Amino acid sequence: MPAFRIWLAILIASPTIVMAEEAPPSAAKQVSYYRDVRPILQGNCQGCHQPAKRGGDYLMTDHASLLTGGESGSEAIVPGDPAASYLIELIKPVDGKAEMPKGKPPLAEADQKIILDWIIQGAQDDTPDSAKEKYDAQHPPSYVRPPVLTGVAFSPDGQLLAVSGYHEVLLQKADGSGIAGRLVGMSERIESLAFSPDGTRLAVAGGSPGRLGELQVWNVADHKLDYSVPVSYDNVYGVSWSPDGNLIAIGCGDNSVRGFDASSGQQVFFNGAHEDWALDTVFSKDGSHLVSVSRDMAVKLYEVKTQRFVDNVTSITPGALKGGINAVVRHPGEDQVLIGGADGVPKIYRLFREKARKIGDDFNKIKDFPEMPGRIYDVAFTSDATKAVACSSLDGTGHVHVFTVADGKKVLELEGLLHAVYSISISPDNKRIASVGFDGEVLMHDLETGKKLKQFPAVPITPLAATN
Fold first, then answer.
1. 201 contacts 181 by C-beta, under 8 angstroms
2. 101 preceded by a cis bond (ω within 30 of 0)
3. Mean local confidence (pLDDT), 109-127
4. CA dist 443 to 156, 374, 426, 456, Å?
5. Which of 181, 237, 441, 465 could form an SS bridge with 171, CB 3.0 to 4.6 Å?
6. Tens digits of per-residue pLDDT, 152-162?
7. What residue ranges do the domains of the chain occupy?
């Protein structure tokens, strides 16, 4: 008997993975593609086999393509016949390694068994009609109303604005003259985006809420996905690049902070010191340390090389902090960070402790800025660090305040903000500030005067009548 068929027979009969009632394969519990098989593929395979990146010309994000197979010419799945299904051979471990998932440990035996039983039972598709929409570069999302926008970022040369959409990031021309590109990926929700220091790539953090997080890295020039990394079981947040562009960090809904090699996408950093969602990250000036903020009210410092938690940058005294922290950005020239969160007060902290910790201290704090209405969602420094900017929202109305760093005073508030604001970005020449939020519009303001310069939709809107 060929080795593959021996492995298949062992997998079917293995006592470690048969059902609790010890039923034979023919009597196995009915396996659902949508509920049981699809999540396994999402977490292990779809990073390389999705519309934006078809590894081996094999698409694994919908049932029909999953069965068809890729460039090998072999049928990936033959309903009722696992021995003839090439996918089963690809996930088969040999000497502890399998061809799929590529570069990762083999699927757990329980997951292999789920896929096997599903094929034995006929590989049926039970995807709900509401979940069968497919998006790719040729079939981007269409919008009948503006989406809520959660992220905006100027490119380092100031020519582009990356703006979050549904299942995509839109590359807008920074002068508001039109869309330069649409980066359509798997993630339903885009939480955060950041250009690499040299502007050639765009890192995107997001996911499908309650199901899967995803880190995407795109080539800006050709609008192609370099790679996708499925992460955890919920959205990921606060993507940032190391100063040299070699590492990418994210915060996660599973309370962890993770770092990845920017070239390969391999995870090289993990720390679970937070007690709640990690919402934003930033690297120290030399890239040796990483900072994260969280709903647990803490700003935490880690050493990148050792993945070691170093210190709570903020006070640990009960009651000293109020509410979670949503945003962090590093001072352009110093190891200091500007943070903002639920208490509405922007604050600057030094990263490295200069005095021994004492109960009740908050030694690392350098200054508070004047309180803003509601909750702060994003913060920024001008590139010369003379000004700090923060956006907040209260009762559906957004506020963007500009402060002078030297004296901590508020110098102006942007005009004409009628809806909640969730993300801001300052142009590299420090003359403009872009903001986005609840109304789906990109607003451009003059950073010196606070006057509105331009307003335009982030996405193309198709009237509802035109879709019928």
1. no
2. yes
3. 84
4. 19, 20, 12, 7
5. 181
6. 999 999 999 99
7. 3-122, 152-467
The helix (H) or strand (E) run that includes residue 86 is helix 86-90
Helix (H, G, I), strand (E, B) or coil at 7: helix
Tokens describing residue 135:
């998006």
d(CA 13, CA 30): 17
Query: 234: Cβ–Cβ under 8 A, 6 or more apart, which residues?
Result: 207, 209, 210, 211, 212, 213, 252, 253, 254
Mapping DSSP to helix (H, G, I), strand (E, B) and coil, where does residue 389 land?
A: strand
How would you class 467 by CB atoms within 10 Å of its CB: exposed for 0-12, middle for 13-18, buried for 19 or more? exposed
Closest CA to 299 of 241, 367, 240, 251: 251
Nearest alpha carbon to residue 196 among 152, 262, 258: 262
- State the pTM of this model: 0.80
CA distance 389 to 402: 5
Residue recorded with tokens 């996708």 = 228
Neighbouring C-beta atoms of residue 449, cutoff 10 Å: 11
Q: What mean pLDDT is reported for the chain? A: 87
173 neighbors 159 (Cβ within 8 angstroms): yes
CA distances from 397 to 91, 392, 438 (A): 52, 8, 9
Architecture field, domain 152-467: 7 Propeller (2.130)
Is the pLDDT at 398 greater than 60, yes or no? yes
